[in-house]
Amino acid sequence: MDPARRICRAGAMKPPVHNVPAGELLKLLDELAAFSVPGPGVTRLLYTPEWCGAQLFLQQRMKSLGLEVRQDRVGNIYGRLSGSGAAAAEQVILTGSHIDTVVNGGRYDGAYGIAAAVTVLHYLQQTFGRPLRSLEVVSFSEEEGSRFPLTFWGSGNVTGLYDGSSREDIADAEGVTLGAAMKACGLGGEAASAGVSAETAAAGGKDYDDAGADGAGAAGTGSVDTGSAVTGPAGSAAVTISRPLRSDIAAYLELHIEQGIVLERSARQIGVVQAIAGQRRYRVTVSGTANHAGTTPMGLRRDALAGSAEMLLALERSAAEEGDPLVATTGRLEVYPGTPNVIPGEVQFTLDIRHSDAGILERYCPQVLEEFAAIAARRGLKLEIQPVLMTTPAPMDKELCAALEQVCLEQGKTYLRMVSGAGHDAQLFAPLCPAAMIFVPSRGGISHAPDEYTPPEELAAGMQVLAAILYKLAYTEEGVIEDRG
Length: 485
Ligand SMILES: [Zn+2]
Hints:
Layout: H1 22-33, H2 49-64, E1 68-72, E2 77-81, E3 92-98, H3 111-128, E4 134-140, H4 153-159, H5 178-184, H6 198-202, E5 240-242, E6 249-257, H7 262-266, E7 270-276, E8 278-287, E9 291-292, H8 304-322, E10 327-329, E11 333-336, E12 342-343, E13 346-355, H9 358-379, E14 382-391, E15 394-395, H10 398-410, E16 415-420, H11 426-429, E17 435-440, H12 456-475
Parallel strand pairs: 1-5, 3-4, 3-6, 6-17, 7-16
Antiparallel strand pairs: 1-2, 2-4, 7-15, 7-17, 8-13, 8-14, 9-12, 10-13, 11-13
Helix pairs in contact: 1-3, 3-12, 8-9, 10-12
Bound molecules: zinc ion.
Zinc ion binds at residues 98, 109-110, 143, 256.
């Protein structure tokens, strides 16, 4: 994918003004929000009837807008605008986000990036016709980890983090395995009816006359396999099924709400994400001696909670000293035996530390854990630290970021270079191809909650930036260097 490194040198050419209709975006967001379990906010968990309904709806919408629709065996949905250039098939500009939500989540997280991408692709096709490079919108099946104990199931299968196989080894809270949940949606497996079924989707609360992607799976050869794929029977939506893993992505762009308060505080319209923070998570156990709260003098105690409290204050202080964008959090703490008249004998707590610089994480984390050890030793406590998760920071592509800034300048929009503390699908593409993210503000920094909100004009602003960058990448000669050969 080396040639893609050159796709952003197209800064010199001023793109046409993009007036992508905001009304279409808002309508699509409304329509997607309807695919939810009743209750506050939006609840659309992986492979549930609501999820199936949303993915089927998107297939139909993309198709009606003239996009070539395809889905893979894990339920990712693609809508393609095929390029006319010679290398168009091997070099796809991909944009989108995830369709799943957390329980009682908001209506913008994930859905915004998909709805905006669909709207933009339709607009570009209507306004400029066929692109030189292929453009695709993707609705990833899963990112949040809100039903099964895994995350990035959609983009992870596209990028090789997962191998596309049905998983029987993990289950949701009800004991339903991931494999069984896929099967219930007509997905997964090497053969036989892969595809979101109309019946499953209808249970999500909407009727579909033209639904039913009943094609057989297991087509193709490893990357994208439009040629040999099987489509559904006559009268169905005839959606192509393909293997998830792809090697034809030349660049990945993701438009997303910030889910934090930095942009709003900065009073800028657009966030140009420089990197997605790496995370280190630990489970910490502090052991002392449980004893009578009335008969044990203060000087003779080995209080696991008091020791933990000292550790957490040390964590807060050292994180503040380190400065932005380092963040360190203890979100869960359990005290044993947890009785008012007993000195705590054991405390378990979580530790979540994030930064966009791998070197700083590597230096800071051992340093803070050493400080914990010193506190434990001084108080006669035992300390156990178990690493739970380590993800490396994902730097976004410098040339793409520069091109995004150029777009903002051309459109007269204010922007802020920033780090994403939250994980996103884009981080899985960053090691494989140029990847970038565009943020718009989240009102009050609220996300993963029913109150998640971004005003229409701010949603539209982000979509215009997306339209302009996609135009540069897919429609201009400068963006199609490989086609010249
Ligand atoms: Zn998201």
